[in-house]
Amino acid sequence: MTATLEFRGLRRVFGSTTALDGLDLTVQPGELVALLGPSGCGKTTALRILAGFEQPDAGEILVDGEDITGVPAHRRNAGMVFQSYSLFPHLSAADNVAFGLRMRGVGAAERRKRAAELLELVGLPTHGDRFPHQLSGGQQQRIALARALALEPRVLLLDEPLSALDAKVRVSLREEIRRLQLELGITTLFVTHDQEEALSTADRVAVMHGGRLEQCAPPAELYDSPATPFVAEFVGTMNRIPGRTGSDGTVEVLGRRLPLRGEAKADADVDALVRPEALDVTVGGDARVVTASFHGAVTRLTLALADGTTLKADVPSHRAAELPAGAAVTVGLPDRPVLVDDRAR
Amino acid sequence: MAALTTKPATRPRPRPRYWRGVVALVAGLYFLGPLLASVIFTVDVPGQGFTLGAYTGILGADGFLASLRLTMELAVATIAVVFLLLVPAMIATRLAAPRLSSLVEIVCSLPLVVPSVALTAGFVSVLRWGPTKLSRTPFYETILQIQNPSFPVVLVLVYVLMALPLAYRTLDAGLRAVDLSTLVEAARNCGASPARAVLQVVLPNLRGALLNTAFLTLALVLGEYTAGAILGFTPFAVWIVGIGGSQAQVSVAVSVLSLVLTWVLLLILAAAGRGRSFRKSRTSQETS
């Protein structure tokens, strides 16, 4: 039941806005790929094209190598969970789950049996007789998930299914979704604007920007070695430290010369991009701690350099006592190649 | 729908209770007082004492059943035409061309600004003008047929026009209450063709709105006098005025009777609509 999924040069324009500007992406069988990006980056459009609710202006979608661009939505066999609560209000939970089977002409007894199995699968075996308005938001999305899985779809599409839920339910349901996805081994595309959600559940995260794919990589790789400045700043927190590139593939930043990672113009003013936890903060120097905020295991310091640049640095909380607000400090960089971006104004 | 609205009301604060009683009393007097007086007037004839003569007289009068039946048929036809006209149009505009829905709204609201007398006068002049201009075309027969007194299609046309603004409002409210595009997309995602998505998902969820529309249209057709009278047909309202004109007791009895009849019909419609949602909430209580 699992399948390879492929977007090829997908383009879609709505009036004056380009939602998709040549999207290429391949999802391997059984893989969970999160489509992550700011609102308007085209991630939902890509999913809706895959579900058959939108037609692309150009490009094609392939499932297991077969072009499904022209197949109508109801013959695509792609289960989808929607952002808004989408259960049919006039049907009980069990009837909602069995709706797709009814459309296929499966007999009543078989439908009931299958619905019971699926309700069991999503952890709501006793809720089959309830109607949507009698269920909580989290329960409704579980039922919607069961409904999406009922027809044993080749791909599972999740369109920000957790965004209407409160924080606690969101975390437990996303773990549940991941567990089910691994158990069933179903190819899944998960649209989200929440990077934590994407990084914690996906095998690979595809970061989109302006209708294009910026980078598609496993979460750790995405975080540690972002391919573009956009990815670097969109995923996690990123400092911009002024520096200047040399002609030999190095960059001079904070008084040190470090190798460059990726492409950059030679002899130009740039910003080096460095994670807060990569900065090394030591007592004494010409930088100053502005504020310190406790985050449990780490404490985030806001630092002001002598030239006025503001940085964020994470230090282990046990060291925070020696770095109170107002303390004079020195900021050091790790011995690693750095990613740079054109100087922000 | 009913299950949603019959949630226990929020606990009343003790203070305004006293006022509630006063308001209920005043409203009750205002509505029920005249009604009660009418009923007493019809059954308590001076010199005869208590008698149901006025009512039996009406029921036995010539044309009672015929006019009532005609009105019922007209009502059913009107409701059917209104549904066939509006439901597909409103669903289609919402799904495919949301910008057109304001146009539909304007068109449907137009009959509100045309008084029914003017509307009927317009129909009369068309019906007069029609036969002479169309006498050599096949439409001549059509013009005659729609005025067939046993089932005047022309009255259905008038009633549909009059019902459009009401029907639009109630259906619009019903459509606003559901997330139409998501429901249709969810249904299609489950393998339902567009037609099945509308029939098996959208329409059941518009049940309340459809019933309300039928409700209002039925009430409108039952009470409509102007068009029927001017165009020269005898639906129930016209017949009732005709029979009541001659006798004081009878004229009041007919208005009481038509009120009761309207109530009964509306209650039947409401009961038909509530049957399912009642069963719904009962089964869910059993499981919880």
Report on this structure.
The complex is a heterodimer of chains A (345) and B (288). Chain A is α+β, with helices and mostly antiparallel strands. In chain A, the strands form 4 sheets. A 6-stranded mixed β-sheet of chain A has the order 6-7-8-3-9-10, sandwiched between helices. Chain A has a 5-stranded mixed barrel with strand order 11-12-13-19-14. Chain A has helices at residues 43-51, 93-103, 108-121, 137-149, 167-184, 195-201, 219-224, 229-234, and strands at 5-14, 17-27, 32-36, 58-63, 66-67, 78-81, 155-159, 187-192, 204-209, 212-217, 239-245, 250-253, 256-261, 269-274, 280-295, 298-304, 310-316, 328-332, 338-342. Chain A has 2 domains: 5-233, 3-Layer(aba) Sandwich (Rossmann fold); 237-342, no CATH class. In chain A, strand 7 (155-159), helix 5 (167-184) and strand 8 form a beta-alpha-beta unit. Chain A is elongated. Chain B has 288 residues and is mainly alpha-helical. In chain B, 80% of the residues lie in helices and 1% in strands. In chain B, strands 1-2 form a two-stranded antiparallel sheet. In chain B, helix 6 runs antiparallel to helix 7 (139-145), helix 8 (153-177) packs antiparallel against helix 11 and helix 9 crosses helix 10 (194-205). Chain A binds chain B through residues 51-53, 72-75, 77-80, 82, 84-90, 92, 99-100, 103-104, 126, 129-131, 133-134, 144, 147-148, 150-151, and chain B through 3-4, 178-179, 182-183, 185-194, 196-197, 201, 204-205, 207, 280, 283-284, 286-288.
